[in-house]
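Tokens help. Consider this.
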Amino acid sequence: MIRHGWPILLCFLVFSLASCDSAEENLGDQVVARVHQKELRLSELSGMFPRDATRQDSQLIVQSFASRWTKDASMEWEAERNLPADLNIDRLVRDYRASLVSSHYEEALVGAKLDSAITQDQLTTYYEENKQRYLLERPIVRCLLLRVPYPLQEEAELQALWNNGKITDTMALANYGERFAEVALLKPDDWYSLDDIITQLPKGVLTVKNVNHKKEFSLQEGSYRYYYRLLEVKPRLEVAPLSYVEDQARSMMIQNRKLDVLEQAREDIYQRELRKKNVEVFSLEE
């Protein structure tokens, strides 16, 4: 709890801070707040005051921090007061410290030894060996999709490019999309989640059930005209194409390499200490 003299002390401290060229100078070590025997001192707020802070700014910073601190300190005091009798807090602290030290060193090891370069051949090999990990949870499609504000700009050009058949000039169609379309998915080799495509079209036009039957259409609804052409669909539980899961596969390869680096480092360090006779295992006394 903050004592009743806190507002007066706050005003004095803030006035002192405001009189300095920087609110970080000459902070001193005054007690700002106290909860039981735990104290917050003004020096602990060093670095929190902008150089151009006004007295009011500094007051708000101190007051806000002290408010949070007293709540946290009160909770900590209550938690300590209610610790279970069988809780070995010292052991927990030791274990946590050991975990932090090990984690820090492991990060350094990984940073120094990890080879994060992945060639296309390595990626392909990994994918071929682990295909069953990449079964689709939802259908995906290769398709072309345009959503263009209606009435259309240069409609004759668009109709000629779309041409109700095979698109031969994809660059020209992409150029039209950049100029006029709000949505332009025009890369024939790219895969998209069917759910994402469905959300780009009027409700109910395309569904999981009719995706294989509505292979091509154009329609006008509201203030948009839509052009859609299905190139390929892969249903749920089929193996995802490599291009669709490439980022995921690369991340998994990196993660596996990290584990290999750490496992090798652990073994090397253990064997070194074993050779130096710094490792001992004792039999239990009968």
Q: What stands out?
A: Residues 141 and 233 are 4 Å apart (CA to CA). Confidence is low (pLDDT under 50) at residues 1-27.
